[in-house]
Amino acid sequence: MASVTDLAGTETDLDCNPEAFRHQLEEEWAENNSYRWKQLAILTLIGNGWTIPNVARALKLNKNHLYRVVNNARAKIREYAETKGPNLDPSRTETPGD
After folding, report:
1. Which residues make Cβ contacts (< 8 Å) with residue 74, sequence separation at least 6?
2. Would you give the DSSP letter of residue 85?
3. Which alpha helices (H) appear in the chain, and where do they start and end?
4. What's the pLDDT band for 91 if we cut at 50, 70, 90?
5. What pLDDT, on the 0 to 100 scale, is given for residue 41?
6. Do residues 4 and 43 lie in contact, with contact meaning Cβ atoms separated by under 8 Å?
7. Beta carbons of 16 and 89 less than 8 angstroms apart
8. Do the Cβ atoms of 46 and 7 come closer than 8 Å?
9. Which single residue of 5, 19, 45, 73 could bond 95 by disulfide (Cβ 3.0 to 4.6 Å)?
10. CB within 8 A of 54, min separation 6: which ones?
11. Mean pLDDT to the nearest integer, 36-49
């Protein structure tokens, strides 16, 4: 089973393939919304080890604003996952290109 770790170091098990969930977020949650795509890009950078101050520096944003963007994105994605929960197939392993 896959898991994710938040900034506080808390590990959470995922009930589905993380790549499949990311793809679903791109296709359904972000869709044609450029702000949500920006949020996903920021979360990806943070997930790959970038610190919020460095992401803020790279994107020329105030770090306090970036903290709010990240918290908002996480809350919206959590809300999306809760509403789509029954539609998330834990056995789904295909990712784009499979």
Report:
1. 6, 43
2. G
3. 18-24, 34-47, 52-59, 63-84
4. very low
5. 94
6. no
7. yes
8. yes
9. 19
10. none
11. 93
Q: Are 90 and 16 in contact (CB under 8 A)?
A: yes
Residue 56: other Cβ atoms inside 10 A? 19
Mean pLDDT of 29-41: 94
Give the confidence band of 15 by pLDDT, cuts at 50, 70, 90. Answer: low
Lookup result for tokens 């790279």: 58
- Which is more confidently placed, 91 or 47? 47
Q: Which residue has the tokens 């770790």?
A: 5
Q: Please give the DSSP secondary-structure letter assigned to residue 95.
A: -
Which residue type, as a one-letter code, is found at position 39? Q
**CA dist 28 → 1, 51, 55, 58, 78 (Å):** 23, 27, 25, 27, 14
Identity (one letter) of the amino acid at 41? A
Are 42 and 59 contacting, i.e. CB atoms less than 8 angstroms apart?
Answer: yes
Q: Which two tokens stand for residue 11?
A: 């590990």
